[in-house]
Design a protein that fits this description.
There is one protein chain. With 291 residues, the protein is α/β, with parallel strands linked by helices. It has a single domain (2-167, 194-223, 262-281), classed as NAD(P)-binding Rossmann-like Domain (Rossmann fold). Helices cover 36% and strands 19% of the residues. The protein has 10 helices and 13 strands. It has helices at residues 11-21, 55-58, 72-77, 79-100, 131-146, 168-178, 197-209, 226-234, 267-272, 281-288; strands spanning 2-6, 27-32, 40-42, 62-65, 103-109, 150-155, 158-159, 182-187, 191-192, 195-196, 214-217, 224-225, 242-247. Helix 5 (131-146) links the parallel strand 5 and strand 6. Helix 6 (168-178) crosses helix 8. It is globular, with a radius of gyration of 19 Å. It binds NADP nicotinamide-adenine-dinucleotide phosphate. NADP nicotinamide-adenine-dinucleotide phosphate is lined by residues 6-7, 9-13, 32-35, 43-46, 66-68, 70, 85, 89, 107, 109, 155-158.
Length: 291
């Protein structure tokens, strides 16, 4: 089985690359765009011929697209750029999937929902509140219309190991380790179901092996707001000088509206895989610090 991961310099992509490399039945290539790593090849979905490897020769059975513009507020103020990196990039990847007759895996988000009644099942009513969510939904819809062999994996609040340490949990760990006084204003009313990127990698391997299709929600069983999530991390740094100030979303003046009760339900995948276990934030922290 040959798998090509677009965006393997990022959080989700690098963890998927890591998991798939350990599977003897999988040959995998991962790509970066602007952030080169020793594990990745250069690949721009808008100019596939300029890549540093030969995709035709690799002839992927599966293409996993994890590339997108993920900064929600930036997307809100730069809608054309967001459209280009999310919707147009999916169109470009779809052409490749059709050309190589590959399964297409797309990583989507709980931001396709409005957050009035989360957590959501796969068939919950979509109604994105912001540009990022609208573009993720449009990308999903294009895929569903144009290709039958697809997997759309919706995730939210992804954390885990990544070279750039950009995710919220990694950011908190870095800040806590600096031991410098800092006030962090965090929303106490934005709820979601965090997931370890490593779990996305493992579960993707199983879904691919079993040739699954359709939409799946991947999430831990924890339903946390940002303050609770931060507190879970900071309990491992009792001497930290970070101070968390809980605030309401409406007082944060964020450019993009947020789904407040977001998050994802995982009944579907658990019904199909009774042994699947999603790790918690505590599991991750204890693994990091060998506790
Ligand atoms: N992180 C979350 O909490 C979260 C939540 C819900 C959904 N998601 C979705 O999960 C996916 C992965 O997110 P992430 O957090 O892993 O993002 P990330 O860390 O920012 O990684 C994105 C990756 O995509 C690459 N990329 C961007 N545009 C590209 C293009 N035109 N051609 C080729 N590669 C391109 C980037 O390359 P360079 O960095 O090398 O330029 C990077 O490797 C995204 O679709 C995101 O919407 C993430």
């Amino acid at each position: 089985m040959r798998i090509f991961i677009i965006g393997a310099s990022g959080l989700v992509g690098s963890n998927c690359l890591d998991c798939m490399r350990r599977d003897p039945d999988i040959q995998v290539i991962g790509s970066h765009l602007s952030f080169a790593t020793i594990d990745t090849e250069y690949f721009n979905v808008f100019d596939p011929d300029a890549s540093t490897f030969d995709l035709s020769a690799f002839n992927p059975d599966v293409i996993m697209h994890t590339g997108a513009l993920t900064h929600v507020d930036y997307c809100e103020t730069h809608p054309e750029e967001s459209y280009h990196h999310t919707v147009e990039s999916v169109q470009a990847v779809l052409e490749l999937a059709l050309k190589y007759k590959s399964k297409l895996i797309y990583i989507s988000s709980d931001y396709v929902f409005d957050g009035k009644k989360g957590p959501y099942t796969e068939d919950g009513p979509v109604n994105p509140l912001n540009i990022y969510g609208k573009h993720k939904l449009e990308a999903e819809q294009i895929i569903q219309k144009m290709i039958s062999d697809y997997l759309i994996l919706r995730v939210t609040n992804v954390f885990g190991n990544e070279i750039r340490g950009k995710n919220f949990v990694a950011f908190l760990i870095k800040e806590a380790q600096k031991n410098k006084k800092k006030n962090l204003r965090l929303p106490s009313d934005q709820y979601a179901t965090p997931i370890n990127a490593n779990d996305i990698g493992h579960i993707s391997c199983r879904l691919i092996r079993d040739n699954k299709r359709g939409i799946y929600h991947l999430a831990s069983d924890e339903y946390l707001n940002r303050v609770e999530l931060a507190e879970k991390v900071l309990q491992y740094f009792p001497g930290s000088a970070l101070h968390i100030e809980p605030v309401l979303t409406r007082d944060m003046n964020q450019p993009a509206s947020r789904p407040l009760r977001g998050g994802l339900k995982t009944d579907k995948i658990k019904k199909e895989y009774s042994d699947i276990h999603f790790s918690t934030v505590n599991d991750y922290m204890e693994e990091q610090y060998d506790l």
